[in-house]
């Protein structure tokens, strides 16, 4: 089933968490097995009915363009933007104001997931939110003993507790009206956008995903991805159900 929605794949970051590897390759070209992560992401989008993709590039962007080309090898159309100066995580969308005239997808170019895109898009379209954030639950183990206190007296103690939070997967559905909030030519992050929308009490929804999600920018997730068979038949990249 064709989703009929444009997607923006963000590939302009410097990949500082994977240094020194990303001093040679941009993060989206880091290999998962024998293939760059961006190739896996693009093929997953295509199998989920996405045919038109905009790839935002900055650092080492020429390498990304040389690897992915115009997308014809995957039966999709790829258009590139190039940041002369880093524009943050959401700022690059300012370069695509004319092209994004309908609800669109935005995702980081280093995310591997079995998220059902059709469900995410359907959830967004039937809501009155201007942004729907794909979310997952992540646990973070503290490296410290955590102390609770009142007026200097210890009331509780937890040794290296595990904290559980609902976190952004780096995948969003957005309406074009969001572009009006993004300034041109200056860095603007997703956090800036969220603070602005929350302050104005603008509606933002979440779509909760309970399946697989790996953020390849994290060393732990990058290594974990190497142990999974990211091929055409992998359940992680199965075509989303309608």
Write up this protein.
- With 242 residues, the chain is of the alpha/beta class.
- The longest helix is centred in the N-terminal third of the chain and has 11 residues, at 37-47.
- Helices cover 19% and strands 31% of the residues.
- InterPro entries: Mannose-1P_guanyltransferase (IPR050486), NTP_transferase_dom (IPR005835), Nucleotide-diphossugar_trans (IPR029044).
- Which of globular, elongated, flat, extended, rod-shaped describes the shape? globular
Radius of gyration: 19 Å
Q: Helical content, roughly?
A: 10-25%
Low-confidence stretches: 233-242
Structural class: alpha/beta
Q: What is the succession of H and E elements?
A: EEEHEHEEEHEEEEHEEH
Separation of the first and last Cα atoms: 7 Å
Report the total helices. 5
Strand adjacency order, main sheet: 5-4-1-6-11-8-12
DSSP strand content? 25-35%
**Taking all residues together, what is the mean pLDDT?**
87
Tally of extended strands? 13
Largest sheet: 7 strands, mixed
């Amino acid at each position: 089933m064709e989703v009929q929605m444009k997607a923006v794949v963000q590939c302009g970051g410097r990949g500082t968490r994977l240094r020194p590897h990303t001093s040679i390759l941009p993060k989206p070209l880091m290999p998962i097995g024998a293939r760059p992560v961006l190739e896996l992401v693009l093929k997953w989008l295509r199998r989920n009915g996405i045919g038109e993709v905009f790839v935002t590039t900055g650092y080492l962007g020429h390498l990304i363009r040389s690897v992915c080309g115009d997308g014809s090898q995957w039966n999709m159309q790829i258009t590139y933007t190039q940041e002369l100066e880093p524009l943050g995580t959401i700022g690059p969308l300012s370069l695509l104001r004319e092209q994004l005239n309908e609800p669109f997808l935005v995702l980081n170019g280093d995310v591997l997931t079995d998220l059902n895109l059709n469900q995410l898009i359907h959830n967004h379209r039937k809501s009155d939110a201007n942004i729907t954030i794909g979310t997952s639950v992540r646990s973070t183990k503290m490296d410290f003993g955590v102390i609770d206190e009142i007026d200097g007296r210890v009331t509780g103690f937890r040794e290296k507790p595990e904290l559980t939070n609902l976190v952004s997967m780096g995948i969003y559905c957005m309406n074009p009206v969001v572009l009006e909030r993004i300034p041109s030519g200056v860095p603007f992050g997703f956090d800036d956008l969220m603070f602005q929308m929350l302050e104005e009490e603008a509606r933002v929804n979440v779509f909760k995903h309970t399946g697989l999600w790996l953020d390849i920018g994290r060393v732990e997730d990058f290594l974990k991805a190497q142990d999974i068979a990211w091929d055409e038949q992998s359940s992680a990249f199965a075509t989303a159900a309608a």
